[in-house]
Every structure is written in structure tokens, then in C-alpha cells.
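Lecture notes, unit on protein representations.

Consider one protein chain, 379 amino acids long.
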Amino acid sequence: MLHTTPSGLLIIDKPQGVTSFDAVAAVRGALHIKKVGHAGTLDPMATGTLVIAFGHATRLLNAIVAHDKTYEATIRLGLRTTTDDAEGEVLVDGEARSRWQTLSAQLTEGGQSGEPTALPTASWQDLLTRTIATNFTGDIEQVPNTFSAIKINGQRAYDLAREGKDVDLKARPVTISEFSVSAVRYGYASTTCAGSPLADAIEIAPEESWHAETDGQNEPNMQPVMELDVAVTCSAGTYIRALGRDLGSELGLGGHLTMLRRIRVGRFSVDMPNVMTAHTEAKTFTNREGIEVTRNRAVLDDAEHAVDHALDLVASAAASISMDMLPVTEQEATDLRFGRRIAHDIHTTMAAYVPETNDLVAIVERAKRGETKPVAVFN
């Protein structure tokens, strides 16, 4: 009896506290399929859209990874961390309070000539809008985060960083098509616990002055900070943590992310009706050294019906590679799978499929007038 391995795409709303590989493991366990992969890593702190392919649909992952993405994030200005997000350790800067006061004075008094952050306005909105537009929109160069999955001589950057080794990552070009600020809060954050809630938080209206008094909180382990809720649409390969880090650096205050949610990858979004939700559970086990370890794992909320949430192979291709679909016959499908040309006159790359069986056959392109050839075949 012939057993057909299912193929398709699942859009997972990844929960906080687990890795993208944990989500892949959850799908692999639910579908009992080894061939599973994801399109674009999300940090453990991050939540949202994670596209997971299984079966033959894993061949679509490279195309999905290349799509642009949209994120919602919260940037905390005034403190840096080792990882540029709330997962790391706070890096205390003894001069940060004085820089807050200097920036506040520059804005309130219109600034002084020659100072890079000085603007002739008392509005935080003008400062942020101008800084973002000048430095962080369009085509820019970005140095990825030290704690990232980029490989250096075969090793992940985050592994090298955890070992205390120097990590030298080169700037790379990325494109930021949207970087907007929707809300701003001012308050005080702990210098010993990254990601802690703001104390004495105040929502700041766009027309209000830069609110940077430092005498309202006398606790030694509290630092004045400003939080920005932002939306970012960017090209593949952009690090939102690096945007928060670099915006803080440009303002002279330091910065890191306290929240990150990916809401869209290409045509796949977190509010699609077939999205699968998941949650995090703690799992305790004994490792090879005999030490008891507890770590989080991802658990699908409707694991028994995971296949019902998936896009089939044809729908996956249509959404993933953003190309027109070419209907072919069973005989033409056989010819394509053997590398033979078929008699179709096309002018762009297309995805060939058999309508009667909803079977994705191949990615095809024009060979010459009246003929089409396969460039990638699906068994």
C-alpha cells in the first residue's frame, strides 16, 4: 500500500519563551513527519508569525524567507542590554542621567549649534521623526546583533558570544520601508532586571516636551527611560533588535527591545483564519551529564487537527512564490517530472499543477516560443 506523505504550510503564532526550532519540533511531533522546517527565525522573546513547512513544501522555504516582514515592537530608550533585548543583562551607564538632562535642555531651549541631537523644537515627536527618517528608513547599512544566529566560520554568533569570544559582524544592506512610532511613555526602569515594568509611567502626547526629569525617582537601581511602541516593515535579514540598539545609540541614550511581535511574512499574517496558536510548557529532564534541567517547549493548541490548519501544496506555492499557476494534464505532469519540456507558451516563471488532483508539479519557465521547461520539480 502506498503511503503519501502530507505536504503544506502551517502558520504558527509562536508563543514567547520558546525558540523557532521548538515550534518546528512541536509540528514534527504532531504530524509524525521528519521533514519540517521554518522560514525565518524568531527570537525566544518574540511572538507572532512563524511559517513552518512540512513534506515537499520545505522546498518553498527559501522563497518565503526572502519576503519582506512587518513587526510591532517596543523600544526602551535609556538602557542597553547585552543582547539588545529584555533577555540579556542590563549594561549600566553612569552618565545616562546627565545625557537625559542634556537632551531635554537641547530640545526645550532649541539646542545649540553643532550638537548632533539638537533640534529647534520641544517636541519628542519631531526629534524621533527626524532621527528615524534620517538614519533608519530606506536603504541602510546595519550591523547584526552579537547574539544572533549568523554563522562565523561554522559557529553561531550567539554561541561565540556566550563563550566570551569576540564577535565581529560586518554591516549589511537592509531596506526599511516603514518605521513609525504610535505611542511614547516615560518612566523609570530597573537597572538590575531587564524587561521589568516601568515605574511611574506617563503617556506622552505628540505635542508635549521631552519629559526627562531625573529627580522624580530617587531609588539607586532605577533609571529614567522612554518607551516607544513602533511598527516596522523591512526587508529580509533586518534585525529589529539592532534598530532599537542603533536608535538609542544615535540619541546618545542607549536602547533595547522589551517586546517584539512579527505580524506578517510576505502574504502570511498572524490574523489569517487558519493560524495555529501554541503555548509554552516547562519540561524537566536529565541531561547526559546526569543533571536535572528544566526548559520550555512549544505545544500546539490543536495538535490533533494540525493538518486541517495547513495550506495544501498548491495553495502554499501560490502564496509563497507569488507567481501565476499553470494548469497541466497528468501526462504533462509526468513529462515535467522527467525533465521534459511541454507545449505551453508562457512569458514568466509559473507554478505548474494538475487541477483535478490539486497536485503541484513543478516551477516552470519559458524555454523558447511555444515550449516550457521545469526548473524545480515536486515529486
